[in-house]
Predict the 3D structure of the following.
Amino acid sequence: MRFQLTEEQRALRAGVRELLAARFGRERLRAAMEADGVRAVPELDRGLWRELGSAGFFSLRLPEDEGGVGLGLPEAVLVFEEAGRVLLPGPLIATHLAAGEIPGAATGETVVTAADGGGVVEWLEAADVVRGYAGGTAGTVAVRSVDPLTPLHRVAEAPARLHQVAADPDSGDRTDVLLTSLLTAAEQLGTAARVCELAAQHARTREQFGRPVGAFQAVQHLCAGILVRVEVARAAVYAAAVTVDAADIAAARLLADEAAVRGARDCLQVHGGMGFTWEADVHLYLKRAWVRARRPGAVTECEEMLAAALLVEAR
Amino acid sequence: MDLTDTPQEAEFRAGLREWLAKTLPSLPAAPSPDDWPGRRAYDLGWQRTLYDAGYGEVHWGADPAVRMIFLEETEKAGAPYVGANFVGLLHAGPTVAAEGTEEQQARWLPPVLRGEEVWCQGFSEPDAGSDLAALRTRARRDGDEYVVSGSKIWTSHAEVADWCELLVRTDPDAPKHRGITWLAMPMDAPGVTVRPLRTLAGSNEFAEVFLDEVRVPVANRVGAENDGWRVTMVTLSFERGTAFVGEVVACRRVLGELALAARENGRWDDPVLRRRLGRLNAEFRALWRLTQWNVSEASGRGDGVPGVGGSVFKLRYSHARQELYEAAAEVLGDGGAALDLQQPWVLDRLSSLSYTIAAGTSQIQHSIVAERVLGLPKGR
């Protein structure tokens, strides 16, 4: 057993972090949502999408002889964790999962989104291809998205349940649903880790009553709670990437959703009044975490799936 | 990231399993919890059995990954718990091994490994709990002896211990962390009085120890005089490492039993309870993975000393354990079963209350995480 990142995995993480800092730093994040004050729906940056494609973001798990990078799920999880840290926008998971199947997805020429059962489609109008939904944009209703960087549409189809597809190994959707849940958990983990840093940074520098607010135990314990949730989720997410076991993925998703959503809320609380402003970034992390937490395989499904797994394991 | 055993680990696991299957059926019956001499003899006998089979040193001599396999497999096989050997094997032993002289190691380590001597821990005091460094038990130098007076509390196995790893104040004028010394005190020395303490679970888990002019040879000091705080930190970090491996395995088994019991008595049809058990499954799976993560990290660092990951683990685990037995009470349901001490899990629900307090309260652990991991200023 050696359940730690390998040297190569550390290097990959550092490389992706560097790339994203250069291509999608905080200025780009703010610019993406404020480029056009009157535009209600953000546009997908096709140039950035192609850059991600040429960096191997989408072709990461394709074999090298098919033009891919030839890496595995643990590496994909590390990459999506970094995407979650910087709130990289776009239907990243759907395009990644379509690589090798839909022409142009691997290189970032084609933008692929998915209607994989959540009843909601992200980035519908920006996408060239919508997987899992034959109707295209017909029969969909635009939602005024809570996340300024994730346009949403509602679709009328009944959602498939994670534990249903997980229980049926022959289901063609099984792999997609499980991997979407796992990579969502990876993004949530990245967001959770980032809000933990932001909370600690604020607590170290913001002074009240003549000392940094981080010297008050009430604030300290809020910050420590964020970190504990991050580290527990990290162990679950990384392990699920190694085992690709349905119950492990459900556990990872449950804990990562919670780490991101509760972490962002506590981070907002640590920021005080500033946390409630549009200007501070905290709300962007919370809103994106909310959007991801609604993807298929959300809390109820995870809990039911994990409960059912108990009976199987104990038998 | 690799979760599978290396060839050496797989070999160790297979050999251990085979040995446990062969050995456990011939063990004597476990003594009653109130039979202290019986418990001492039983726990020491088990350690002797381990020693004879070559597993005696697994708690501190082995690689943390191997230790984890040992704790996992012994728990799964239903082997005896470390019991009265806890302090010797997991606290005092590792401290002597890390900080003691060759002579001290030769005197104290073999009897622990062979299951001949029991140690207890004299750290906490009535007025020094979370603020351990405020301890006031005084040791005055008199020739080649220290003369020790004061009192200790929460001392498990004091009734049957041969030795006590004792923290005493040797310099009352120094800043509180710098005037502490670590001594090995023989429990049969004149002036040592043990008074059992009854816990809220009704058991005599631990005791108060009163010290009245107890003479301890200077040769029993581990580390330098007034350097006891640093020596102690070596010990405490072990406590937060692999100490809970067996318990996480046990909690996962209990969780499965709860699910089966709930299906049996119809409580499984309650979606609120069912989802609560599902969430606990996520919790204990993750805690198992976090243990593997922390153990791999300690293995990789080479010193085998667990890092701050131990605080993160302890915070979450102690809470999860309490939630597990709260859920158990829900499974037992109405009709008095959850209030009946003879039902399974009801005593465990009571014992679980100590977990967020012992070995550093959750509040102290939160502060440790905030200050040492997140770099927040020292709290107040």
